[in-house]
Amino acid sequence: MPRHHMRYAVIGTGAIGGFYGAKLQRSGLEVHFLLHNDHAHVQRHGLKIYSKDGDFSLPAVHAHVKSATIPVCDVVLIALKTTRNYLLEDLLPPWVADHGILLTLQNGLGVEPRLAQLVNPGRVILGGLCFICSHRGAPGEIHHQDYGSLTIGAYGDGYKPQGVTPLLETMANHWRQAGVETFLTPDLGYARWKKLLWNVPFNSLSVVLSATTTEMVTNPQTRTLARDLMEEVQQAAASQGVAIPTTDVEQMLHSTATMAPYVTSMKRDYDHKMPLELEAILGYPLAVARRKGVALPRMTMLHQLLQHMDRHNRHSGREVPGETPAVAPA
Amino acid sequence: MPRHHMRYAVIGTGAIGGFYGAKLQRSGLEVHFLLHNDHAHVQRHGLKIYSKDGDFSLPAVHAHVKSATIPVCDVVLIALKTTRNYLLEDLLPPWVADHGILLTLQNGLGVEPRLAQLVNPGRVILGGLCFICSHRGAPGEIHHQDYGSLTIGAYGDGYKPQGVTPLLETMANHWRQAGVETFLTPDLGYARWKKLLWNVPFNSLSVVLSATTTEMVTNPQTRTLARDLMEEVQQAAASQGVAIPTTDVEQMLHSTATMAPYVTSMKRDYDHKMPLELEAILGYPLAVARRKGVALPRMTMLHQLLQHMDRHNRHSGREVPGETPAVAPA
Q1: What is the pLDDT of residues A180-233, one digit of tens each?
Q2: How does DSSP assign A126-154, residue by residue?
Q3: B244 in helix, strand or coil?
Q4: Does residue B322 belong to any structural domain of this protein?
Q5: Among B118, B151, B186, residue at a domain's last position
Q6: What is the CATH number of the domain that holds A248?
Q7: Cβ atoms within 10 A of the Cβ of B52, count?
């Protein structure tokens, strides 16, 4: 099919889906956006992207408040926060059971197998890893501060490596013509585990310690802890047949130490009292490793700590109602 | 020696040393208090104890600003916070090398062997475990809210059990006559490790999670984590030849769940921006277990997290000077 006849659907028009969908539409593709809160505004005024690569507006977009009105598309981008995945079954257009390529731009591990459960066998599922700093502004506005690349790989049962297929090459072409730096990976599982190598220690510890990346790699104790956690990610990956070389660990510690201090995405969610993406970053990786008999005490402990912190963060206060804390005996 | 001729020295006249020392003096013993900040005030006005068992004043006490002026005593109580143990060498009266029984009322593990290094071989060293809620008020004032018992055991090299010696019986007699509920333990090491069974999870997690004991044992994830940590304490103790039965673990979880919600002593120190007793609660136990080849990942991780939090808590802020945190790529 000629490129300009390609139709995309975007499920979740936030900082990721809104940004990439807008780039695709600007490049001449037909894009259908599913929105919730901002629907009326976007239907009237379109989308506005403030980008370090140049601002642009799309005065008219196909805005949908329900997936039922989205016509059959060639590609469906999934760009919800993984914490809202319990909505997926209702948000996916009914025709995806039989039509369209699914490309998830979500974080962490386990998002592709979850999609596979929701559609008929044989549907093509791709995973996309976004390396981008962007956030939502006013209704219909997205701010793109930095980076913006995408790495795409094909998903096979249990993250079995699928190689670089012709379909992936075609997809990469679309994205590159839309001005998105695009990489292809023959092994989506490796790419996802390698991203976890960073996300597990730095997203998690940034919330527990209220620290920036620079603080975490500078302080000797937390640097050691970050390395210990990375080794557990290596063990978890190995339990799934994915070999992460130790040079990846060292290189990632080094590059984190030399980059500008960052507030991680999980810390940003925490500061905004949003739910944390714990299942995708910790829960699912822990569960698949546990099924292979691999115990990961540090990651388990992080998961336990963060579940507690997440719950308290999103609820009113930390006090136990009706009880007055006393001082403990020494 | 008749009881009323006994002389006590108190090194560290705070919430613990001031309280117990005052009780001893009130019962007729001669007590010498070493003080720093409050010395002038206490020398002039004495000590005032506000206690749930009845308030009392000691208008005249022997107050010393330097240990050099303390006469030779029969018993030296060590009641410094363990975080100030680097001062011990200077604060112990020179005559303790050859005279007097040392009785440390400090928290955690490793305080007795530390004392043993500072005195000549053969000095009697006893360990006391205080179960008390008390805190300092205005200069010379101590508030005793709850509990107040003391458990004493004799220290032998490597915490080898010493049994209940006649000396311990004599000591217990002194304390009981001073109105202190006193227990004797034949195995100081077991008593110290058993106290760690509670202190390791609940002191530590209360700071990391900013939670009360009730919250920690009520939430299923943190209750599991507390139990996992207790099992590591069991392993550490076992590496030192100390058997902590699993019934101790279950009983402690149960009693913590049924008692009133507590702010632990470490959380209180943290909230007052005081140094945390990390070495006595985590560092020393981890070090002796490591020397026996026992790795304790959860306790190690707690130690790493708390060292970071402690340092940041006591210093001005959490920002890295001159650097502006950016937002991390997703």
Answers
A1: 999 999 999 999 999 999 999 999 999 999 999 999 999 999 999 999 999 999
A2: EEEEEEEEEEE-STTEEEEEEEEEEEEEE
A3: coil
A4: no
A5: B186
A6: 1.10.1040.10
A7: 13
Catalytic (active site) residue B66: no
Instruction: Based on the fold, state whether residues B160 and B18 are members of the same structural domain.
Output: yes
Co-location of B46 and B177 in the same domain: yes
Q: Which of B133, B300, B325 sits opposite A263 (nearest CB)?
A: B325
Residues of A in contact with B202 (CB under 8 A): 328
* Position A324 confidence tier, pLDDT thresholds 50, 70, 90: very low
Report the gap between the CA of A2 and the closest CA in chain B (Å): 32
pLDDT, mean of each 10-residue run, chain B (330 residues): 81 96 97 95 98 97 97 97 95 94 97 94 95 93 94 97 96 96 98 97 97 93 97 98 96 90 89 96 98 98 98 68 49
Return the SS3 of A252.
Answer: helix
Instruction: Say yes or no: B262 contacts chain A, CB-CB below 8 A.
Output: yes
Tell me the two tokens of residue B266: 């470490």
Selecting from B228, B265, B330 the residue whose C-beta is nearest the C-beta of A132 gives B330
CATH code, domain with A100? 3.40.50.720
* Mean pLDDT of the residues in chain A: 93
CB atoms inside a 10 Å sphere around CB A225: 24
The answer to whether residue B326 sits within a structural domain is: no
Average pLDDT over residues A158-165: 96
pLDDT at A320 over 50: no
Within a domain: A328: no
State what percent of residues in chain B have pLDDT above 90.
88
Catalytic site residue from B23, B48, B195, B267: B195
Pair A76, A24: CB distance under 8 Å: no
Quickly tell me which residue has 């993250």 as its tokens: A159
C-alpha angle B38-B44-B47 in degrees, rounded to nearest 5: 60
**What phi and psi, each to the nearest 5 degrees, are found at residue B44?**
-80, -45
Contact at 8 Å (CB) between A201 and A229? yes
**Do B26 and B169 fall within a single domain?**
yes
A147 φ, ψ (degrees, to nearest 5):
55, -150
Instruction: With CB atoms and an 8 Å threshold, state whether B215 touches A318.
Output: yes
Query: Among the three residues A119, A151, A186, which one is the final residue of a domain in this structure?
Result: A186
The number of distinct structural domains making up chain A is 2
* CB-CB neighbors (< 8 A) of B268 in chain A: 327-328
ipTM of the predicted structure? Answer: 0.86
Q: Per-residue pLDDT for A318 more than 70?
A: no
In a domain, A251, yes or no: yes
Residues B258 and B278 occupy one common structural domain:
yes
Beta-ladder partners of B169: none
Q: Record the tokens describing residue A202, joined without a space.
A: 């730095």
Backbone angles phi, psi at A182, to 5 degrees: -125, 130
pLDDT in tens, B146-205: 899 999 999 999 999 999 999 999 999 999 999 999 999 999 999 999 999 999 999 999
- How near does any CA of chain B get to the CA of A237, in Å? 19
Judge if A147 and A53 occupy the same domain. Answer: yes
Contact B141, B50 (CB under 8 A): yes
Residue entry with tokens 């005024």:
A45
Q: What is the 3-state secondary structure (H, E, C) of B92-153?
A: CCHHHHCCCEEEECCCCCCHHHHHHHHCCCCCCEEEEEEEEEEEECCCCEEEEEEEEEEEEE
Residues spanned by the domain of A97: 3-186
Q: Tell me, yes or no, if B284 comes closer than 8 A to chain A by beta carbon.
A: no
Q: What chain A residue is nearest to B261 in terms of C-alpha separation?
A: A325
